[in-house]
Design brief:
The chain has 356 residues and is an alpha+beta fold. The chain is built from 10 helices and 10 strands. A two-stranded antiparallel ribbon has the order 1-2. A two-stranded antiparallel ribbon has the order 3-4. A two-stranded antiparallel ribbon has the order 5-6. Helix 3 runs antiparallel to helix 4. The N terminus is likely disordered.
Length: 356
């Protein structure tokens, strides 16, 4: 009997009433609809921002591929690596958007960016102070004469540099920021030793070895140039005496040389291709007759015998026109060198480099 009671208690009563369903809050359905709408708009926005974008065509710039008022869906930037030939892609450049059509799609290539890190090496204050002290010791040992300057340089294991400064020069060639050194040189006397000049990142000490006020260069300074010119003249005489033969090939063979061709020689040029700067040779070629063997020409770097094979004359080029052009060039050069010539004749001294 107890078992039956238990069974009866475990079974729900068919007549037991179910609890009533709780009513939804007012406006809850509208909230759910608005939430779904916002979620849908967010998904659409993400798709069109990161994957696709709808653009309209305005004008005829895309004709015939697209016409005015057409619409197209563009892939986002990070999908361009999968673009194929014929696809239209969007490129954002600053405030503008460029629409481009892919006409060729090659295999992807790897690009590498290389960064260079530069560490400037600057002398410390202690190092500069030590070098300045060495320069001070050098200045003490170099006083007295040019020989003492050379001995001090040898002891300090430095090589003295010889520089010439002409009247009117404000700097020393090859030495940056050397205005103070040049100004000192104008007021110095032969044998004077300068103070320590701070030139750029270097310390400079100078000595004045010579003052040349001569109008003409002394023989000992131009002897090397005179010797070179005399040797050139003697070589010319020797080569001319050794020449033999009536043709260009025979004369070249008599000297153990070879005949070489050259072209494009003009009257107004100073250079000959394959030869170099030879104004005398250019002048001789310009005045030579076609096919005639020339006389030996003494050039700057050799002796030349030539034969003109072809002459090309411009239709607008005449002997009278070339004469006028050469005269105008000479007059221009005369004006250019007139002022220095007048200054030299009037014995004018240019002292601007000393005071400015």
């Amino acid at each position: 009997m107890e078992q039956e009671d238990k069974n009866l208690q475990a079974q729900p009563s068919e007549t037991q009433e179910k609890p009533d369903k709780q009513p939804l809050p007012k406006g809850y359905e509208a909230y759910l609809s608005l939430f779904d709408l916002v979620r849908m708009l967010a998904v659409i926005t993400l798709v069109f921002v990161f994957f696709f974008r709808l653009n309209g065509v305005s004008g005829s710039s895309m004709y015939p591929t697209l016409v005015d008022k057409d619409y197209l869906v563009l892939e986002s930037n990070f999908l361009y690596r999968n673009a194929r030939q014929g696809d239209i892609v969007k490129i954002a450049s600053g405030d503008a958007i460029q629409l481009m059509q892919v006409y060729r799609a090659d295999k992807p290539s790897k690009h590498v960016q290389v960064a260079t890190i530069t560490y400037p090496v600057e002398a410390s204050a202690a190092t500069r102070r030590d070098v300045h002290n060495q320069a001070g010791s050098f200045m003490v040992n170099a006083k007295g004469s040019a020989a003492a300057f050379a001995d001090a340089a040898s002891t300090a294991a430095v090589t003295p540099r010889v520089a010439a400064i002409a009247q009117g020069d404000r700097t020393i060639r090859g030495l940056e920021d050397s205005r103070e050194v040049a100004r000192w040189a104008y007021g110095a006397k032969e044998g004077d030793l300068s103070a320590i000049f701070n030139v750029g990142k270097d310390y400079v000490i100078a000595t004045l070895t010579e003052i040349d006020d001569n109008e003409y260069a002394p023989l000992n300074k131009v002897s090397a140039q005179i010797r070179s010119q005399l040797l050139r003249d003697k070589k010319y005489d020797y080569i001319v005496k050794s020449l033999s033969g009536s043709t260009l090939a025979e004369q070249a063979a008599s000297l153990g040389s070879e005949v070489e061709d050259f072209s494009d020689v003009t009257f107004g040029s100073f250079y000959v291709n394959g030869v170099g700067m030879e104004p005398r040779l250019v002048g001789a070629i310009a005045s030579a007759e076609k096919g005639a063997l020339s006389a030996p020409v003494k050039g700057l770097s050799g002796v030349y015998v030539f034969e003109v094979g072809d002459v090309k004359t411009d239709d607008k080029q005449t002997a009278e026109g070339e004469k006028v052009r050469a005269q105008a060039m000479a007059e221009g050069m005369a004006q250019q060198f007139a002022i220095p010539a007048i200054q030299q004749m009037a014995k004018i001294q240019d002292l601007r480099g000393k005071y400015f």
